[in-house]
């Protein structure tokens, strides 16, 4: 290769490296830059688990190079022992180190699984900042639509689309559901991913500790408009949050009623920020129970009816619109049946033996009768 061609190849490689670095410079590792206490604890758990695993990975990588260099073919000082087959010291190190790492990871993971349970109410606002008793969390109701997010503030009586504002250092209790698809409510700087499922009401307790603006999205693929299913997360001081809520309330926005929600529920992409100055107080419960449309029965009402009537109408004598009674369901109306063991011997009666199959394909002893194509064993003849 000529020198000019070699220089040109080096320049091309340098250009590719520079372009790659420019693209990577736009990546923001938001998971490692938490703005809330729950995200902070999750970040610390990730770092701890990574550090503990590196206690094995780094020595193994280093020793791989050391062994390859020390026992290379050209090393005259290498110690070659073809009779070596066992070392108690090596066995202890090989088995003890992974065992200790597994114990440490298991203990920390088990503890944090309970401490960071999304249903568990917060006990602190941050490290060394316990939550005062009687502190009431801010209620926020989250609905995953196609392909947008609806946030309802029931206490403030307002709602927004793709725009979530939270006060700093105030505990927040999220109620999360979805309309037709499984999605995940995920704000990396706030907390971990929580599933949003149709007909379900998931919970998340979290808090923001820093003002600022980040983004959240759905971590579960939901089809065509998934890539634009994002929402803006804004942390505000408490006074600024109260001012923001008043502006939404008094900003002349449209009320969010059942008819407007049904129009909003239709699939749409790249939906801009929308603010609603009022919202129906029962809208979220009707979304969870899938009865926003007029005349459609709610799931909870149907289930309560089925439980009261044992899975169906007693007048009909069978199952109604509900499911078949199972464990935990209410018994059918009528007298309680008496157990067989509690009856007298004369009251038990008798029944034919039903354990043995009968029919033209079986003989009197229960074995297969002669069938076409099946070999039969001749019966033994009695001695005269």
Automatic annotation (TrEMBL):
GO terms for cellular component: plasma membrane. Residues 310-325 have a biased composition (Gly residues). Keywords: Cell membrane, Electron transport, Lipoprotein, Membrane, Oxidoreductase, Palmitate, Respiratory chain, Signal, Transmembrane, Transmembrane helix, Transport. GO terms for biological process: ATP synthesis coupled electron transport. Residues 335-347, 364-373 have a biased composition (Basic and acidic residues). It is a multi-pass membrane protein. The chain crosses the membrane at residues 45-69, 90-110. It comes from the Bacteria. Residues 302-384 are annotated as: Disordered. GO terms for molecular function: copper ion binding; cytochrome bo3 ubiquinol oxidase activity; cytochrome-c oxidase activity; oxidoreductase activity, acting on diphenols and related substances as donors, oxygen as acceptor. It is found in: Cell membrane. The keyword rRNA-binding does not apply. CDD domains: CuRO_UO_II (cd04212). Its main location: membrane. The keyword Oxidoreductase applies. PANTHER family: CYTOCHROME BO(3) UBIQUINOL OXIDASE SUBUNIT 2, CYTOCHROME C OXIDASE, SUBUNIT II. This is Ubiquinol oxidase polypeptide II. It comes from Novosphingobium fluoreni.
């Amino acid at each position: 290769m000529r020198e000019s061609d070699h220089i040109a190849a080096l320049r091309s490689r340098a250009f590719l490296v520079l372009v790659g670095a420019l693209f990577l410079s736009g990546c923001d590792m938001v998971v490692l830059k938490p703005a809330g206490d729950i995200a902070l604890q999750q970040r610390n758990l990730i770092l701890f688990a990574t550090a503990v695993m590196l206690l094995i990975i780094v020595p193994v990588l280093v020793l791989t190079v050391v062994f390859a260099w020390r026992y290379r073919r050209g090393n005259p000082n290498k110690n070659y022992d073809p009779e070596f087959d066992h070392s108690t010291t090596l066995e202890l190190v090989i088995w003890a180190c992974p065992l200790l790492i597994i114990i440490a990871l298991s203990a920390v993971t088990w503890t944090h699984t309970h401490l960071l349970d999304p249903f568990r109410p917060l006990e602190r606002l941050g490290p060394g900042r316990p939550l005062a008793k009687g502190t009431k969390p801010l209620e926020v109701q989250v609905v995953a639509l196609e392909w947008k997010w609806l946030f309802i503030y029931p206490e403030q009586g307002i709602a927004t689309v793709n725009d979530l504002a939270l006060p700093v250092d105030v505990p927040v209790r999220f109620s999360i559901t979805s309309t037709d698809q499984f999605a995940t409510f995920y704000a990396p700087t706030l907390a971990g991913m929580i599933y949003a499922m149709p007909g379900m009401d998931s919970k998340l307790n979290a808090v923001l500790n820093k003002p600022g603006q980040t983004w959240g999205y759905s971590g579960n693929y939901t089809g065509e408009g998934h890539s634009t299913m994002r929402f803006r997360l804004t942390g505000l001081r408490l006074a600024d949050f109260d001012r923001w809520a008043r502006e939404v309330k008094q900003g002349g926005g449209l009320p969010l009623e059942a008819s407007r929600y049904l129009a909003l529920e239709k699939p749409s992409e790249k939906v801009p920020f929308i603010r609603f100055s009022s919202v129906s107080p029962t809208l979220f419960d009707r979304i969870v129970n899938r009865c926003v449309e007029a005349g459609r029965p709610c799931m909870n009402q149907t289930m309560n009816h089925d439980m009261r009537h044992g899975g169906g109408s007693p007048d009909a004598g069978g199952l109604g619109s509900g499911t078949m009674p199972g464990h935990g369901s209410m018994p059918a109306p009528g007298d309680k049946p008496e157990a067989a063991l509690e009856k007298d011997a004369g009251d038990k009666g008798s029944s034919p033996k039903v354990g043995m199959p009968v029919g033209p394909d079986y003989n009197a002893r229960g074995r297969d009768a002669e069938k076409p194509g099946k070999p039969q064993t001749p019966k033994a003849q009695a001695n005269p």
